[in-house]
Amino acid sequence: xxxxxxxxxxxxxxxxxxxxxxxxxxxxxxxxxxxxxxxxxxxxxxxxxxxxxxxxxxxxxxxxxxxxxxxxxxxxxxxxxxxxxxxxxxxxxxxxxxxxxxxxxxxxxxxxxxxxxxxxxxxxxxxxxxxxxxxxxxxxxxxxxxxxxxxxxxxxxxxxxxxxxxxxxxxxxxxxxxxxxxxxxxxxxxxxxxxxxxxxxxxxxxxxxxxxxxxxxxxxxxxxxxxxxxxxxxxxxxxxxxxxxxxxxxxxxxxxxxxxxxxxxxxxxxxxxxxxxxxxxxxxxxxxxxxxxxxxxxxxxxxxxxxxxxxxxxxxxxxxxxxxxxxxxxxxxxxxxxxxxxxxxxxxxxxxxxxxxxxxx
Length: 361
Ligand code: F6P
Ligand code: MN
What we know:
The protein has helices spanning about 10-15, 20-45, 70-85, 220-230, 250-260, 280-295, 325-340; strands at about 60, 65-70, 90-95, 100, 110-120, 130-140, 160-165, 170-175, 180-185, 190-195, 205-210, 240-245, 260-265, 280, 295-300, 315, 320. It is of the alpha+beta class.
């Protein structure tokens, strides 16, 4: 029976018992969950949310005089409104805001920073494919209001991270540094119920996810890895691989947590100004922590994602994450490319012009 499974609140009480400021962190995560429930309801309404012909590009006013906002703006406001009032956060950073959001003067400031992407993969909304919200919680241990630099903490300093996926069911997948756990929204009773405790990613996999339309821009180690996967049983991997690309990071990471796999949005040469597509603070770091807490690995291809020192709040970063052994292999391919050991050895004594060419002997 559902009532015998822990709710999110019960889970948080049990898992945070004894942790510093446990009640505050629990309360914040409950606020985030309330925002997620609201977003789930809005997303599920789809086009019904907009009374006009199509979702507007900008805020419009409907026949009832109500302001209708595009979903990315609306979901951003939903998170801000649910989390600003409780005296739990000192400030927030959102993918939708250029600058950090200061807590309004009529609310108390707390000791946490909330960093989030309110609607990830939002291009999938129009085609009714799963989207999600991603969030990360950092500490802010001073009384002073946070400035942008206070958010620039490496991913291993996150004290909680998670995502919500709005698919056939709405799920919240969460870590407070004690494993990765999945909760399913029971819409009838309005609670998140622990349905996927202690998720574990198999260390090996035969499934990869990458946008292959970018293939010509990839670096050689990524070309090598994907090429070998595609060669399948007839190549050095000696087994066939499957490929998936949903173009929704939340859905991609969710699949990896459920059945393994590797996800890559690597560094490429498409736009030299961008070192990757995904954002470090509110996409890569929370996902890397969730994956690592489930026994997987999160990397830039060249080293652990969680060790990267952020330089700006909207910084982009290359992302390789998923099954441990596969991510380690991709890191090895990057190392071998950098030190030249992935190229066949050509001896200066035995090359084409050499006196020692077999036919010259
Ligand atoms: O927020 C970025 C994002 O939408 C991710 O959710 C997704 O993995 C990626 O971009 C999709 O990229 P592309 O448009 O190259 O397929
Ligand atoms: Mn996003």
